[in-house]
Design goal:
This protein has about 140 residues and is of the alpha+beta class. The protein has helices at about 40-65, 105-120, 120-125, and strands at about 5-10, 15-20, 25, 70-80, 90-100, 130-140. Helices cover about 30% and strands about 30% of the residues. Helix 1 (about 40-65) packs across helix 2 and helix 1 crosses helix 3. The protein is globular, with a radius of gyration of 17 Å.
Length: about 140
């Protein structure tokens, strides 16, 4: 399977990129002397892709396990190298589960399956960075 996208320059330092889903995303970066932003930072979007990929796995697995959650979120942080080309050398993914009587073992199992087996973006990150994960439970 292959994917193809088209990224179109929209002027200045702003680009719009399509996706096989038919949706688009706008990307840009900080411009010195300007506070105005139109899109997402390409590097930070990589962290969002990691969270999205793993989150889709976790929720799909928990649905199959019939685990109910009140809420779920992930916080991903990445440390960039000092030298160009700058890339994330260290990435941390925190999984936060919210609910009453959470089945912690099933939540942890879903995270582990995503991290170790299913999340292709996680595997890509492992090729160039040290990835760590933590799971947190919040009862409501």
């Amino acid at each position: 399977m292959s994917h193809k996208i088209t990224t179109h320059w929209k002027g200045g330092l702003t680009f719009e990129s399509d996706n096989p889903s038919g949706k688009t995303v706008v990307m840009d970066t900080n411009v010195e002397g300007s506070e105005e932003r139109f899109g997402l930072s390409p590097k930070a979007m990589m962290l969002s892709s990691l969270a999205g990929c793993s989150g889709l796995d976790v929720i799909s697995i928990l649905d199959k396990m019939k685990v109910e959650l009140d809420d779920f979120k992930m916080e991903v942080s990445g440390e960039l190298t000092d030298e160009h080309p700058k890339y994330y050398h260290t990435v941390n993914v925190d999984y936060h589960f919210y609910g009453k009587d959470l089945n912690e073992s099933k939540c942890k199992k879903a995270v582990n399956l995503s991290v170790e087996k299913y999340c292709g973006v996680m595997e890509m990150f492992r090729r160039f960075s040290k990835v760590s994960t933590q799971v947190f439970f919040h009862s409501s």
